[in-house]
Amino acid sequence: MKHFTVIAILVASLLALLPASAQNTPPPITLTLAGYAVPREAYDEIIPLFQQYWLAETGQQVNILESYQASGAQSRAIAGGLEADVAALSSEPDITRLVDAGLVNEDWKANEFGGIAADSLVVFAVRPGNPLGINDWVDVIQDGVEVITPDPATSGGAQWNILGGYGAAWRGFVPGYEGEEGAAEFLRALATNIAVLDRDGRESFLTFERGIGDVALTYENEVYAGLLAGGEYELIYPQSTIRIENPVAVIDTYVDAHGTREVAEAFVNFLWSEDAQRVFANHGFRPVNPVVRAELGIFENGAGAAAEATPAAEPSSIEHNPLIAFPPVTDEFTTLDIGGWPQARTQVFGEAGLFTQIIAEVQGR
Amino acid sequence: MREIKPRSPLALLLIGIAVLYAVVLFAAPLVAIIYGAFKDGIDPIIETLTDPAVLHAFEVSIGLALGAVLINTIFGLVTAWVLVRQKFRGRGLFDTLIDIPFVFSPVIAGYAMIVLFGRGGWLAPPLFPIVFALPGILLAKTFVSLPFITREVQPVLGALSLEPEYAAYTLGASRWATFRRVILPELWTALLYGIVLTFARAVGEFGAVAVVGGNIEGYTETATSFVFRAMNDRNSTGAYVVSLILCLVSLLILFLMNLLRRRMVVSRG
Questions:
Q1: What pLDDT, on the 0 to 100 scale, is given for residue A251?
Q2: Which in A279, A365, B121, B197 has the greatest CB count within 10 A?
Q3: What domains, with CATH codes, occur in chain A?
Q4: Among the residues of chain A, which ranges form H helices?
Q5: What per-residue confidence (pLDDT) applies to A306?
């Protein structure tokens, strides 16, 4: 009887201790990030920052598994069962596919930044000295200019590139190709000049880097990544171009299945922190956090005065790379200015879409 | 006896073409890979070979290739046996179907697996994931390397005389003992040859594995998908170093195969 009491007390006290000790050192948690091909270097820097932050906040270690491939392919993989907790893709339709599949809640854009992790612009990369004098969209469609851009069927980046030229023409910045009809003609001329359609943005730009083509349609951040790695080409800003908006979302169905919602949401929110945004900027992405935008002198069109109201930044260990600048362009437009993504998705890139048909025609010659 | 006639110009031309073809297709890329791996000195090589992601990728590639070998050895032997010794309706069709992995694009096979085993698929697994996880990669590697063992063992088994088997039965040996001590010794060389080919094919597979695995670093990334990723990351040294190791593995396999082929010629001839 005596023994029984002692054992009972021991067991009871152990049971009382267990939850407490479990709270002190929570078991490590694993998060899977599925990204598009291009921002890998930025995430390689942001992830350790987040791991430190999460450890300091909660005492929990977080391991992050990463997968990167073309945005469209990645989106289809997630829809097909790649159980990532967070999707960082290159354009809204690739997240919309996950919403349609019932994996991401419809309210994923309902935050201060509209679900966008970082911006960029569609720009041109040309050979050193710009031998063909390619300075604007109209120069890209001249006879004999070889254009490199990824395949819009797999790459979100490619869709941005095509919409950049399409919108610039529509908005009257390509002489001879103005308005909706002119923009369609512009796409036809552009498609004729496309030399290689790669699978994703990075592959496409590496093709250009290896000496193929006269001009690469690409992201501003992609050119900066190449220039920082020692690439030799020039970055050209057209007068009118589209603002690329790279969305990020927690994949609700999967985080709920994994029990990782809290840490996944913290990770996504961390992407908008000043430090993470500075890392994005150092990899050539235009930050979306107003404080970091102000530091870099990026203002909305005609919104320079409003920027003075932005609060001063906290001191940070991350310094801006002086080699990277984000100059304004004459006409920076967004997808909303040309009808929004749902319209672009069906009318330009869908099965019966304008560009899909033009590419089929041009390649079938 | 050898070389009675001097070589004709045509023979010289053919020799030249064959050698040139081999040099251009095999030797030149190998030299390029060796050059690429060593051009920045030894440090990047050590860095690559100590990178946990690279080590993990090799583990996945080699471990799951061995798994594919194990599965295909068992099922390959059974299939060969059935095709040679059993008569049944549709055997000819079955015999043809074994070669499907040789003619099917691996990428398409990968997509088919996602449709079958992925989210909402007909055979979506209830307990643990298959696609975008290691079981999917094992399945992909098994699929692409499926025909080799059957195809190597089948002709040898077909050529075996039945008399030693009957003799063993008559002397009271069990079925298993007969298989192990009478039939298997005859099959060994062909089986080993099939195993080596299966392993080589399973280690080298890229398309199906990339589609089915989702290339999650440190989890479903294989050595071949690491090479692809490293190229995209402008980490060309990493890509060359891992390629070089894969080449060395292939060369080793090649020598093994040569050795086995000689044994086969001796034992058959």
A1: 98
A2: A279
A3: 22-118+245-297 (3.40.190.10), 120-244+329-363 (3.40.190.10)
A4: 2-24, 40-58, 71-80, 92-100, 137-140, 156-170, 179-193, 201-209, 220-228, 252-258, 261-271, 274-282, 290-295, 341-344, 354-363
A5: 46
